[in-house]
Specification:
Number of helices: 12
Number of domains: 2
Radius of gyration: 24 Å
CATH architecture of the largest domain: 3-Layer(aba) Sandwich
Order of helices and strands: HEHEEHHEHHEHHHEHEHHE
Bound molecules: flavin mononucleotide
Largest sheet: 4 strands, antiparallel
Number of strands: 8
CATH class of the largest domain: Alpha Beta
Oligomer: single chain
Length: 303
Amino acid sequence: MFSAGWGFAREVLSGRCFRYNGAMSHLIVDERKCRRDGICVESCPVGIIELREEKAVPTPADGADALCISCGHCVAVCPYGAMSLDTMASEDCPPVQGEWALTPEQTEHFLRSRRSIRVYREEPVEKEKLRRLIEIARYAPSGHNAQPVQWLVVHDADEVNRMAGMAADWMRSVLKANPDMGRGMLLDRIIAARDAGKDTICRGAHHLVVTHGPEKDPVVPSACTIALAYLELAAPSLGLGACWAGYLHVAALQWPPLKEALALPEGHAFQGGMMVGYPKYRYKRFPLRKDPLITWGQPGEPL
Ligand SMILES: Cc1cc2nc3c(=O)[nH]c(=O)nc-3n(C[C@H](O)[C@H](O)[C@H](O)COP(=O)(O)O)c2cc1C
């Protein structure tokens, strides 16, 4: 978690940092470092930083503290470390390692080599490693920088299997109530596999990572989905593999016993699940995918 350094607090208290109208503001400019270049003004997504005169120190606009989404762009974009928030001191924000930037070829390689991992080793993942994975995934974007994603880690493999069993119960109920739909979703095959001792719902993964958040918050679904996508991409860097648990997701929304077992906080909905474990195999080639369907200009006018 972020913690503003004491040195920074002393600077503010000693008056060497900018205070708006003599009062402590959420936005804090170090006048000695500020070059009055207006980069923070241009970069602020909410437009709450102003240069009241040419070459003036940037100042918060009226109501800035209430409008600020604490995205830290002003802090992160300033080349001189002159900008801070009262919750985000410039010196606490790690520098971007420009030389680590991936080339387009490396980026394509990285993204194309992500695979859904469905065969896992019989070896649990340490809690610390799963925590590290989530620590990376939490840097995913969210609407208004709300960062509403909450995480549930089902660490116990027996519990993951028990939940997969509950999802299978839901599948049986669908097949009974609506056999055509159930077969269309291949639920009969999943049940047959499960009855034969093979779990194709959670794929025998040791762990399950679930994202959730307040059901009524409109930014929650996209934030949770993107965060899990980050998690899947980050997994191989820690020697891990992951796979979206889509069937479990649908069951978790429909089947009361599974909802109960997940025990999410009141008012929270299951937004996505990811199986996680140590992969048994390595992929050696990139599978091919469809060409992108792109329309340039007016819809219906492909070039
Ligand atoms: C939302 C979503 C749900 C998915 N659910 C499952 C699932 O329940 N079981 C599974 O084995 N794979 C699941 N997958 C993985 C897809 O089958 C996989 O992404 C696709 O076949 C492409 O393979 P790749 O991810 O290795 O590129 C899901 C993927 C997504 C994006």
